[in-house]
Amino acid sequence: AKELHEAELGKRGPASPAPCPLSARQREILSYAAAGKSEADTGAILGIAGSTVRDHLERVRDVLGVRTKTQAVAVAVQRGWIVL
């Protein structure tokens, strides 16, 4: 809840007019994270290593300026970049 609240504080509005800074693969991986899939599960689904999934999620957090996967999901959903 704290992470979602912190992400909410950084929210600028219902949708950002800025284009999504995430690649299609990053959005895909973040969508699996939002669905509750582990890094290993996501890797198995996509045919990549869990460590590669972890690397993608780390880059997503850096790009979005958040600390956790939960915050990244919240920001992406709020800005309409992924759909639950």
What would your notes on this structure say?
- The protein has 84 residues and is mainly α.
- The chain is built from five helices and no strands.
- Helix 4 crosses helix 5.
- It is globular and about 30 Å long.
- It starts with a helix and ends in a 6-residue tail after the last helix.
- The mean pLDDT is 88.
Subunit organisation of the chains: single chain
| Share in helix | 55-70%
**What string, H for helix and E for strand, traces the elements in order?**
HHHHH
Most strands sheet? none
Backbone CA Rg = 12 Å
* Broad shape: globular
Low-confidence stretches: none
Structural class: mainly alpha
Question: Quick check: average pLDDT?
Answer: 88
Question: How many DSSP H or I helices?
Answer: 5
Total number of β-strand segments?
0
Strand content: under 5%
Termini separation comes to 17 Å
Give the helix/strand layout.
Layout: H1 2-9, H2 24-34, H3 39-46, H4 50-64, H5 69-78
Helix pairs in contact: 1-5, 2-4, 2-5, 3-4, 4-5
Structure in a nutshell:
This protein is an all-alpha fold and 84 residues long. The chain is 62% helix and 0% strand. The protein has helices at 2-9, 24-34, 39-46, 50-64, 69-78.
